[in-house]
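Task: sequence in, structure out. Protein: Pseudouridine synthase.
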Amino acid sequence: MTTGYYSPITYQVPPSEDGWLLKTILQKRMDVSRKLLSRLKMTEQGIMLNGERVYISVRVNAGDTVQIRMEQETSEDILPQPLPFEILYEDEHLLVVNKAAGMIVHPTHGHYTDTLANGVVYYWAQKGEQFRFRPVHRLDQETSGVLVIAKNPYSHQHISEQMIAGTVDKRYNAWVHGVPAVLSGDIDGPIDRDPAEPHRRIVTPDGYPSLTRYEVKEVYPGAAKVELKLESGRTHQIRVHMGSIGCPLIGDGMYRHPLYSKAGLPAGEPGARVPERAQLERVAELDASISRQALHAVRLSFQHPVLRTELVFEAPLPPDLALLQAKLQRETAAAPAPGCDRNER
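Result:
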């Protein structure tokens, strides 16, 4: 239900743009997309010049004030529900949250409640505000961390364009089995659905171009902490890419360590090959130490869609990942140095 307009986005015409077409100002200076421009033209107060509704074919003068107004919207198909979530930042254009692991971002078939969207819509309603729930990007259900929600089409368009242009800096922390052979580098592997299991993704030559940059931050016995930067945004990208270099994420029940199937038998049972059995026991121990994939969207930076200032957000580690990291750090401190005999005096 539309009840009014959001606060206008304003542009003052400088002397250098005297005589420009209003359409040019809207597209080249205010960066209004064609889709949004068409929508604004059909809105009574969508495009205003010095407080008056005008055609976009008029010419502007230096000092003129151009304003665009978007109609208020709501997500009528999302049930408001009181759910806790952590807010990192909020203004009239954006809401940035630290999504909890286990929380689905948007209602889907079979999951109409208990999602982040339900909680956010309820939160806005309690403040008497009207916004449509527009996540600019997604995080897997079991991935925690920074998530950006746009409050209007203009903000959504601008941040989405930054993501397409590769100017949004998305950083993740992951705790993985093993240690990458090269401590920093790029994983350039096309990703697509697994024909045998369509809900899974695989690296395949015929897939969509996908690039992940990584750097090992800490090394533990049989594991590592890795910082990753996404240059593309494919479904399950980090989980698939790290698995492709032999370092699947700890706790990932969908993309499990290949030793589970390679060893042929559960850890500890007679018949499993001894070297792999010992390694599998370590893999299984680590997987049992956390109930989801050890992945956290730790940092996100982008340009504010209206203020045009650089925004940087960081999400602290949730308790389960902090405990996993502390466990691995303790094990590292207790482990003997390479080549050292524990019995040496």
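The chain has three domains: 9-68, 73-165, 166-335.
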